[in-house]
Amino acid sequence: MKKYHLYQIDSFTKEKFKGNPAGVITNADGLSENDMQRIARELNNSETAFIFSSDNDAYEAYLRFFTPLKEVPSCGHATIAAHYARALENKLDTSRIYQKIGAGILPVEILKEKNDYKIIMTQGKIEFGPIIEGENKDFLLSALGITQNELLEGYPIQIVSTGHSKVMIGIKNQDILNRLKPNYDRLARLSDVIKCNGYYVYTLDSDDQDILVHGRMFAPAIGINEDPVTGNANGPLGAYLVHHQLVKHKDALFVFKAKQGEKIGRSGVIEVEVQIDQSEPVKVKIAGNAVVVFQLELII
C-alpha cells in the first residue's frame, strides 16, 4: 500500500469549475500502466497526468497522460495542471525545467506571480499533415452538421500537430460554433480512417478585442466527446494560421489568446505564442493559469 498525492486542477482559469479539469498525481513512482488507466477512468477527466521521478540528467520530471480510454503522448491542460501542482508542493520560484513526455523532452517555465503561478509549456515538433478533402471532408462536415458555405474560405481543413494531432476546421461565426451538435459515433469512425482523433472547430469571429479565437474540440475516439480548453488544439492552430499566411505578424512572433469551453459552461482562456523564422512557424508555446479544486490521498 502506498499513498499517492492526487489533485483535481482546473487549467486555463482562476475560477473553480471553469476551464479544463485534469487529475494529477505528483508522486506516481510505483504505479503500473494498468493502475494509471484505472485512475484516469475513475476520475473521468479528459486527461489525468502522472509525474514520475527522473533518472536522467536531461530532464527533471517524466509525465504520462491518460484519457479514460487510453494513453496519449501530450496534453496541454494536464501539463499546466501537473506543473502547477508541482510548483505548489515544492514552493518553487520562477524557474525553467525540462520534462519528458511522449512528444519528447521539452522545457516548461514556471512563473511565480505573488503567491500564485502561471505555467508556460513549449509544445512538440510542428507537423502539417494531410488536407482533408473529397469523401472524408463530406463525411466530416455531415458528422459536424456544418455546410460548405459555413466554412471559412481559404482555410483548408488540415491535420496539424505539435505532439498530438488535431483537425483544424475554420467556420465563419460563433452562432455556427454554438449550435454544433456533432455525431460522435461518426467522428470516431472517421478518426480510424484519417488517423487523427481530435477535431478543432474554430472561428475568428470575436466580440472581444483581447480574444482572437473561439473554438470547440471533439475527440470521441479517445473518450472525450467535447474537451473544454485544449492546448493541443490552439497551439497547432497558431502554427497553421502562420503557415497559411492567414494572420499578420512581424516574421518573428505571433501571439494571441483563445477562448474555449463556453458552450459547455467551462470557459477558459489560453495564451499562444508562435515563434517564426522566414515566415514559417518553428516553435509553439502555450500558457495558462490554474486553480486547485481539491486534493487528497489515494491509497492503493
TrEMBL record:
Keyword Metal-binding in annotation: no
GO CC annotations on file: cytoplasm
Record InterPro entries: Phenazine_PhzF-like (IPR003719)
GO molecular function, one term: isomerase activity
Superkingdom as given in the UniProt entry: Bacteria
Active-site residues, Swiss-Prot/TrEMBL: 47
Keyword line: Isomerase
Pfam family, one: PhzC-PhzF
Regions annotated as coiled coil: none
Entry similarity comment: Belongs to the PhzF family.
Protein name, per record: PhzF family isomerase
Organism, scientific name: Sporolactobacillus shoreae
Lineage, highest ranks first: Bacteria, Bacillati, Bacillota, Bacilli, Bacillales
